Amino acid sequence: MNDEQRNVLRYKLDDMLEQARCNERKLRRFRALELTLIGTDSLFELIAAVLFPERSGFNWDLVTLLLLDPEYEVQRILTEEGVNLADYPSLMFATDKDSLDSLRQISLFPLLGPYRRKKHNVLFPCKKKAPASIMLLPLVRRGRLIGTLNIGSFSAERFMKGVRTDFFEHFAAVFAVCLENATNLERLKRLGLTDTLTAINNRRFFDQRLKEEIETAKRSDTLLTCLLLDVDFFKRVNDSYGHQVGDHVLMEVAALIRAQLRGSDVLSRYGGEEFAALLSKTGEAEALEVAERVRASIENHRFETSDGSCFQVTISIGLATFNSRLDEHSMLIGDEYLVGETDRAMYSAKEGGRNQVVSVGEIRLPVKQSAEVLEEA
Predict the structure, then answer these.
(1) What is the DSSP string of 306-343?
(2) For the structural domain made of 13-192, what CATH number should be given?
(3) How do residues 224-234 score in pLDDT, each as one tens digit?
């Protein structure tokens, strides 16, 4: 072997070593991101970790995610986590498999190539700069397409046919598993936080959300109104028509209340014939209007017995509004105090003749209690 051949061989070896080092660095980055995905605590954190990876580790210019969500389940989960989906245009949803397949060209394998505006614009809804090349990674579970992860580059040479996709395919498989697991976990959580009769949230869920909503109202300096709603003379319904009819009344009352609330509002069965609701970013005046609509809709509703005869029920509603801007002591108000004041308003509605709405207004700690708490602090 002469010197020229040795030099050529040396260059080839150096090139192979550099490529091996590059692949090792790339593998470490993907492994680190995969460990992050596995360790996330919520569905949104999982999605955010992929949509917004560390720029130092992944030089991806654009990342979008399209998920198949025919029952709007994922969207409901994220909304209940407090995510405003409108703030994340890079997160998209398809409501039927046909629309997803048409975008993915019914492919279960990565697609690389140049960006074509007419063909790929829906996957990259960017208002500024469009990518020059793209990689579309299918998210597959048990042979079924559940979404597509879309990566764009401003470089035309970045994602071209012939580029190896081993790391990306492995990453997409891990992400699909994590996505499925996170969704299943949320389903299990909701099974334990849902009232089986009315199909709305239960007391446990309400208690959890109440603490979160109060803290959010304190941090963001916004209003929070709590409602307690109690069906009047419900025992008479059970005694007169039987418990089966009573159950149907509770189911219909829950549906009537839900119909008057926003999707972001929290509605729970608080116990027996009593319901509770949390209206975030809602003051007393607006909450009174909502409560009155609820009261009227129930009063005007005709409930039926098994033999087809009709009867009516009414509801008493109490409400209290938390306003952290009232004074410095309002920041000391906790979940038990807010519910206690709301409960007081509800019992005032009962004692005042039922079938009415009573508000205690914007609450604050009593002066004596405020002083005691401050002294203890």
Answers:
(1) TTS-EE---EEEEEEEE-TTS-GGGGG--HHHHHHHHH
(2) 3.30.450.40
(3) 999 999 999 99
